[in-house]
C-alpha cells in the first residue's frame, strides 16, 4: 500500500484547483474575445461585452484567490521549488495589474468611450491575461515538470 504524505496531497490539491481555475479563466477569455469580435453595430454589442467582462473579472478574482491562498499553487511552489521565488513573485505581482486592467475595461464598457477604442482596450487586456497564463504554465512546468493544461 502506497502512503501519500500530507505535503503530496496539498500539492495535488493545489495543482487540481489551479487547473480548474485555469479552465474557467480560459473560458471567460474566449467569451470576451467572441463578444469583442462581434460586429460593433450589432444590437447590444456594448452590453454583451460588458457582461462577458464581468464574468472575466469574476474568473480572474477566483484565480487570484485560489493560487495566492495559504495552500494555493504559489505557496506550494514556494515550498517545493524555492529556486523559483523570483518567478513566483513575478507571476503573483501581475495579479493587481491584470485586475485593474479588467476593471478599467468594464468602466470603459459602461462609459461613453468609442467602440473601436473599447475593442482595442479589451483585446490588450486579453493579451495580458494570456501572457500571464503562459508564464504560469511555464512556472508550474519548471517547478513540477507537469503541464497544468486548461487550454
First and last CA, distance = 35 Å
Q: Please report which band the strand proportion falls in: under 5%, 5-15%, 15-25%, 25-35%, 35-45% or over 45%.
A: under 5%
Report the order of strands and helices. Answer: HHHHH
State Rg: 17 Å
Q: Provide the CATH top-level class.
A: Mainly Alpha
Mean pLDDT: 92
Task: Give the number of helices.
Answer: 5
How does the major sheet shape up?
A: none
Helical content class: over 70%
Counting structural domains, the number is: 1
Shape: elongated
CATH topology: Four Helix Bundle (Hemerythrin (Met), subunit A)
Give a count of the beta strands, DSSP E runs of length 2 or more. 0
Could you list the spans in which at least 5 consecutive residues all have pLDDT below 50? none
Which structural category do the helix and sheet elements fall into? Answer: mainly alpha
CATH architecture: Up-down Bundle
Amino acid at each position: 500500500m502506497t502512503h501519500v504524505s500530507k505535503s503530496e496531497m496539498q500539492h495535488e490539491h493545489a495543482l487540481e484547483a489551479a487547473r480548474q481555475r485555469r479552465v474557467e479563466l480560459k473560458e471567460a477569455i474566449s467569451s470576451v474575445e467572441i463578444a469583442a469580435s462581434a460586429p460593433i453595430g450589432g444590437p447590444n454589442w456594448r452590453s454583451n461585452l460588458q457582461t462577458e467582462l464581468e464574468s472575466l473579472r469574476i474568473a480572474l478574482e477566483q484565480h487570484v484567490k485560489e493560487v495566492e491562498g495559504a495552500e494555493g499553487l504559489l505557496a506550494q511552489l514556494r515550498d517545493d521549488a524555492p529556486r523559483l521565488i523570483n518567478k513566483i513573485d513575478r507571476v503573483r505581482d501581475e495579479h493587481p495589474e491584470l485586475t485593474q486592467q479588467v476593471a478599467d475595461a468594464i468602466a470603459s464598457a459602461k462609459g461613453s468611450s468609442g467602440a473601436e477604442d473599447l475593442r482595442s482596450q479589451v483585446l490588450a487586456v486579453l493579451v495580458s491575461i494570456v501572457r500571464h497564463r503562459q508564464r504560469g504554465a511555464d512556472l508550474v512546468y519548471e517547478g513540477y515538470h507537469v503541464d497544468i493544461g486548461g487550454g
